[in-house]
Design a protein that fits this description.
Layout (H helix, E strand, L loop, with lengths): L1 H6 L4 H7 L3 H26 L3 H18 L3 H9 L1 H29 L8 H17 L9 H16 L2 H11 L7
Helix pairs in contact: 3-6, 4-6, 4-8, 5-6, 6-7, 7-8
């Protein structure tokens, strides 16, 4: 809190007028980030042309996040701020699961995702895989979380797309989807 107050050019006493302590500050920062992410996801859903386009836009957003993500953040949150980590696991991952489930249902209606897949199971697998990426500890010189996520999303899409979906993906791969 000393460093934060010094950086903000205010006294710790003033800082404590706004936050009860470091834990409260961290909780507010995470809450802010999660709310921002919900707004981004909502925007992505409304702006996308189809379910595959939506999934690719989500993937681009997450890949960008992972390029600046430090895996020790997950470890530190779990260890020192379990209540904050719990909100990430329960609230945020629940939101992500619902977003992916909506995407899968949209894709089924559009005929770009296979009808026989069970939405709930696939959405849970997606969330579980995404969470595991944040926990993978690899040396900096090796594969980065953004690269792992890229492979995971391609694996996810190719596992659920129909022939129509794969044709759409291939058709748009050179321009829209190439960045994934």
């Amino acid at each position: 809190m000393d460093d934060i107050a010094r950086h903000l050019v205010m006294s710790k006493k003033t800082l404590y007028q706004y936050y009860e302590g470091k834990s409260d500050l961290i909780h507010k920062i995470i809450e802010y980030h999660l709310n921002q992410e919900k707004m981004v996801m909502s925007s992505i859903q409304s702006e996308s042309d189809d379910a595959i386009d939506e999934m690719i836009r989500i993937a681009r957003y997450i890949i960008e996040f992972f390029t600046t993500f430090n895996p020790s953040l997950s470890y530190d949150l779990k260890k020192y701020y379990p209540e904050c980590w719990s909100s990430v696991e329960v609230e945020h991952m629940g939101f992500i699961k619902n977003t992916i489930a909506q995407n899968i249902n949209r894709g089924k209606l559009e005929g770009v995702y296979r009808d026989e897949i069970i939405t709930e199971i696939i959405a849970n697998l997606y969330v579980s895989s995404s969470m595991n990426i944040t926990l993978i500890q690899m040396p900096k010189s090796e594969i980065q979380p953004s690269q792992i996520y890229r492979e995971m999303i391609l694996y996810h899409l190719h596992g659920i797309m129909t022939k129509k979906g794969k044709d759409l993906f291939k058709k748009n791969k050179t321009n829209t989807y190439a960045k994934v």
